[in-house]
Amino acid sequence: MDDYSGIRVRLEKRLGELLERVEDIEDDLRGPLDADFSEQAVDLADDEALEGVDAVLRNEISQIRMALQRMDNGTYGTCSQCGKAISRARLEARPIATRCIDCAQ
């Protein structure tokens, strides 16, 4: 079995960063609207953009949590499609990878 402790540390660090960013976005989205109607329009447009960023971040959070779960249950580094090992280089480059490079293409 491979030692993925370095990758785990990177994933856990990234997860913490993402969770903080999502919390900041949620705080911004919960903020009150400006009393000025023209500013409200700008605020609503900004909120739409923030909601899009939030969705992307939440997707990455989900992928990281699944990768950490695969590490815990011993399936990390195994291609979910063909069952072969995912190369170490691929996992270093894309730690959330679930498929080997051949199956991913």
UniProtKB/TrEMBL annotation:
Q: What is a GO molecular function of this protein?
A: zinc ion binding
Listed transmembrane segments: none
Top-rank taxon: Bacteria
Every DnaK suppressor protein-like N-terminal domain range: 10-71
Q: Write down the InterPro entries for this protein, in alphabetical order.
A: DksA-like_N (IPR048487), DnaK_N (IPR037187), Znf_DskA_TraR (IPR000962), Znf_DskA_TraR_CS (IPR020458)
Q: Where are the zinc fingers (dksA C4-type)?
A: 79-103
Which keywords are on file for this protein? Metal-binding, Zinc, Zinc-finger
Pfam entry (one): zf-dskA_traR
Every Zinc finger DksA/TraR C4-type domain range: 74-105
Query: Which PANTHER family does this entry report, sorted A to Z?
Result: GENERAL STRESS PROTEIN 16O, RNA POLYMERASE-BINDING TRANSCRIPTION FACTOR DKSA-RELATED
Its recorded name reads TraR/DksA family transcriptional regulator
